[in-house]
From TrEMBL:
<protein>
    <recommendedName>
        <fullName>Heme-binding-like protein At3g10130, chloroplastic</fullName>
    </recommendedName>
</protein>
<dbReference type="Pfam" id="PF04832">
    <property type="entry name" value="SOUL"/>
</dbReference>
<dbReference type="InterPro" id="IPR006917">
    <property type="entry name" value="SOUL_heme-bd"/>
</dbReference>
<comment type="similarity">
    <text>Belongs to the HEBP family.</text>
</comment>
<dbReference type="InterPro" id="IPR011256">
    <property type="entry name" value="Reg_factor_effector_dom_sf"/>
</dbReference>
Length: 198
C-alpha cells in the first residue's frame, strides 16, 4: 500500500543540506556507485521504461539478477534519467527527456554498501555500465505529480532563473529524479529536478 501512497521505503542518496530557500535547496551529495544504460527511446515503441527494464533485470527486481554473481541488489530511489550526454557528473536519478530520437541515459544509484565500481556485481548485459559518481553539489527543486516534459522544462527554467538571481553558477545540465513507481497516485509522487552548481 505504501508504494501506491508514495511512501519511500528504500535507501536514498546521502547529502548535506548547504542552503534552503523558498524556491530550491542546494545539497552536497556523497560519492556513489551507479548502474546506467543509454538507449534510444524510439526502440521501445510505446514503452518509455525500456531503460528501467534493463536496469531492473540487472539488480534482480524483475526475475533472476542478470549479473555475473547472480547477486540480488536492493532497489534504491530515485531513478535518474537525462537526455543526451551531460557534461557534469549526474546524481543517482533517472532523467526524463528524450525528444524524438534523442538518446536517454537512465541510472540506478546502487546501495551505499558499494563504495567502488568494482565492488558491484558485473552486469551480464553489456549495455549496463557500472561507474562511480564523485561528490557533487546540486540545486534541487522537489515537486509532485507526473513529470511530463512540459512540467520538467518549466521547473528547470524557473530553477535556473532563481539560481542566476541568487548568484549561483550552473555547471551542467539538469537531471530528473523520480522516487516512486508509476502506479503511485500522481499527487503523491515525489520528483526532483537537479542542476549541478559550483
Amino acid at each position: 500500500m505504501g508504494l501506491i501512497l508514495g511512501k519511500i521505503s528504500v535507501e536514498t542518496p546521502k547529502y548535506e543540506l548547504v542552503q534552503s530557500t523558498s524556491d530550491y535547496e542546494i545539497r552536497k551529495y556523497e560519492p556513489s556507485v551507479v548502474a546506467e544504460v543509454a538507449y534510444d527511446p524510439t526502440q521501445f515503441r510505446g514503452n518509455k521504461d525500456g531503460g528501467f527494464t534493463v536496469l531492473a533485470k540487472y539488480i534482480g527486481a524483475i526475475g533472476e539478477p542478470q549479473n555475473i554473481k547472480s547477486e540480488k541488489v536492493a532497489m534504491t530511489a530515485p531513478v535518474i534519467t537525462k537526455s543526451e550526454k551531460i557534461s557534469m557528473t549526474a546524481p543517482v536519478v533517472t532523467e526524463g527527456g528524450g525528444g524524438e530520437g534523442k538518446p536517454v541515459t537512465m541510472q540506478f544509484v546502487l546501495p551505499s554498501k558499494y563504495k567502488k565500481a568494482e565492488e558491484a556485481p558485473k552486469p551480464a548485459d553489456e549495455r549496463v555500465v557500472i561507474k562511480e559518481e564523485g561528490e557533487r553539489k546540486l540545486a534541487v527543486v522537489r515537486f509532485s505529480g507526473i513529470a511530463t516534459e512540459g512540467v520538467v522544462a518549466e521547473k528547470v527554467e524557473k530553477l535556473k532563473k532563481s539560481l542566476e538571481k541568487d548568484g549561483h553558477k550552473v555547471i551542467g545540465d539538469y537531471v530528473l529524479a523520480r522516487y516512486n513507481p508509476p502506479w503511485t497516485l500522481p499527487s503523491l509522487r515525489t520528483n526532483e529536478v537537479m542542476i549541478p552548481v559550483e
